[in-house]
Amino acid sequence: MKALVLSVLLLFSCNAFAAVGCDLNDPDRDVKRFFPSSTGYKTDYLSISKEGGAPLLKEVEAVLGDSFQGTYETIDVPYTVYTVFEGKEISGYIHGINQKGKFGGLQVFLIFTPEGGVRNFYYQKLTSKFAKDLRSEEFANQFKGLALSDFSDYDPKTGEGGSEKVKAVKFPSSDDSTDFLATLRAVKKNMILMDIFVFQRRNEK
Amino acid sequence: MNIMQVAGKNLRRRKVRTAFTIIGIALSSWVLVTLLGFNKGYEASLNKDIDDMGFQIVLTAKGCPYEAATLMLKGGTGLRYMEEDVVKSVYEAGEVDEVTPMLMHAEFDPNKGENGGTTVYLGIDPATYPHMKPYNQFAQGDWFKSGEKEKEVVLGYEAAELEQREAGDTFLIGEDEYLVTGVLKRSGTQDDGMIFLPLSTAQSVFDKSGKITMLGIKLDKDADIPAFEEELYKLPDVQVVSMAQVKNTIMSLVTSAKVIVMSIVVIAFAIAMFGVLNTVLMSVFERYQEIGILKSMGAMPFDIFKMVLFETTILCGIGGIIGVSFAILISGASEFAIRYFIPFAPTGGLIQISTNLAVISVAAIIAIGLLGGIYPALRAAAIRPLSAIRSEE
Q1: CB nearest to A12's CB, from B49, B140, B163
Q2: Could you say which of B112, B246, B250 has the minimum Cβ distance to residue A126?
Q3: Nearest C-alpha in B relative to A20
Q4: How far B282 CA sits from the closest chain A CA (Å)?
């Protein structure tokens, strides 16, 4: 009982801060859904602070074309990379990031081919007035086949630039493009992080 | 030269002995005051922690899950409601310090992500809830700015993280936009995942006018919680969730700590008293002949008795004041040491040395010293002048 009391009291003095990550809600189910023939997966927890610190953050921001903002987009945010296997072969990757939207948080997940192209796109969670449009299959399908190179001159602050494939991605609703632009920023950031955490390293090996 | 001046001179003549005696008394005083201060501070801090736990009793409709986690697992179903009038009935049960009505609501939004999602809201009374949950501190902003019926929300730490919201941002409930007035710091409770909005707003938005799901009850400090719970069970269709057991255990911990501390205080007193007795008695024996000469010069036994007691008073007074001052000066370091060594220490000042405590402690040290000085003083007063002068040192 005393342990319980101490636990209860300790709860009231705990004010630790921790950056929020973005994990799959149900990894077993989600991996199987996107990779039906997968035989397993491994999970890696990475962060900019651990992988390269401030210089890496600057590099990410430079490629992104925007600085990290607000309380929740920080250098120590943990990113979870799911590497999916079919036997001993890598059949793809799953990676999600949190993005601040106009009305709430967006959890933007990309499913990558082993080469780094986008195989699929989905919001694990989103709060938006335009949620119905954003979570439609038509909208998600527009991201299939995109690669980081398509975003090389895309400016997330203005929404301008990008390859023809990026320019072809259209927002179904014309009322307010804030969450649409936030989504494109999240996609570009997601690809940059995956390029640094996975694809560049794999090529170095 | 009067007998008091003789006493003062005696102490000055034996400087080293006087200094060591004063140091001994000062150390005892330091221990005494620190322990008494700890006794007071520990209890006060624990009481504050109990107070900061907010309400001790939660009243819900019978069968209603009162935890957000349960609600989420059940997909936001299973809530039952009480009429808001129950507040009046609870106040009538007596011993109530304050109550705060709440309306919990879970809303499933099919567009909230790939498979939809449930969000739990808590409608709270802005006038009572904030100070009944004093441990809730803000990372950003504050409680609702405009009071009742406004479209404002406060987010728990994890809810804000999940929604990437900061104070001043917009938050969506249904199709309506709300202003985020504040984001709470992490508390380790279910409040972390909660989205708070004014009770009347919640009742209106979720179409639950005049209904509440929970009533937080804070009782008077000395209230009989079990008896009060029995009273509550007389209300129709309610269940009582109580923190009484936690509070009782904490109070038994406090009582145990007090017994231990007071035992050490008694030991400190005894050490101080016998230290003074020993020192003064030795001093009397050393001045055996001197006292005999004083008596032969006309000093009465009562004068000698007063002289010895006066010496004792000076020793204890100076030692006590030094000890208490030292205790006050290093109370911060003492508190740091206590916090380092004991596994759990409540928040707030652990050692509280008030002016009253300081004055009473010095007085108690002098009183104990005088008690210890009575026997040597009686021995000194009983010395026969001629036999004392004839004796060899």
Answers
A1: B49
A2: B112
A3: B161
A4: 50
Tokens of B42: 């520990």
For residues B226 and B78, membership in a common domain is answered with yes
In this structure, are B107 and B235 located in the same domain? Answer: yes
B164: nearest CA in chain A?
A105
Dig out the tokens for B218 from the structure.
Answer: 């804070």
The partner residues of B105 in beta bridges, in order of sequence, read: B121
Clarify whether residues B226 and B342 are in a common domain.
no
Q: Which of A12, A34, A129, A179 to mutate to test the interface with B (most CBs of B within 10 A)?
A: A12
Which residue would you say has higher pLDDT here, A13 or B171? B171
**d(Cα B162, Cα A62) in Å, to the nearest integer?**
26
pLDDT for B247 equals 67
Whether residues B116 and B169 fall in one domain: yes
Dump pLDDT digits (tens) for B356-382. 999 998 998 888 888 888 888 888 888
Task: Based on the fold, state whether residues B228 and B259 are members of the same structural domain.
Answer: no
Residue numbers of the domain that contains B264: 3-50+250-390
Whether B278 and B228 share a structural domain: no
| Cβ–Cβ < 8 Å for A18, A73 | no
The per-residue pLDDT for range A90-109, each reduced to its tens digit, is 999 999 999 999 999 999 99
Selected residue of B164, B165, B175 to mutate for chain A interface (largest A Cβ count, 10 A): B164
Give the integer Cα–Cα distance in Å for A186 and A169.
14
Q: Domain boundary residue among B187, B209, B242?
A: B242
Terminal-to-terminal C-alpha distance of chain A = 55
Residues 125-154 of B with CB under 8 A from A: 135, 137, 139-140
Please indicate, yes or no, whether residues B7 and B21 belong to a single structural domain of this protein.
yes
The last residue of a domain, from among B185, B220, B242:
B242
A88–chain B nearest CA distance, Å: 30
Residue B282: partners with Cβ closer than 8 Å, 6 or more residues away: none
CA quadruple A163, A169, A171, A172: dihedral positive or negative? positive
Q: What are phi and psi of B378, to 5 degrees?
A: -65, -40
* Token representation of residue B300: 């009465």
- Give the nearest partner residue to A104 out of B139, B140, B171, using CB atoms: B171
CB contact under 8 A, A105 and B249: no
Say how far apart CA B203 and CA A175 lie, in whole Å: 30
Q: How many CA atoms lie within 13 A of A47 on its CB side?
A: 15
Chain B contact set for A123 (CB, 8 A): 113-114
Contact B165 A104 (CB under 8 A): yes
Q: Are residues B45 and B134 in the same domain?
A: no
CB B268 within 8 A of CB B365: no
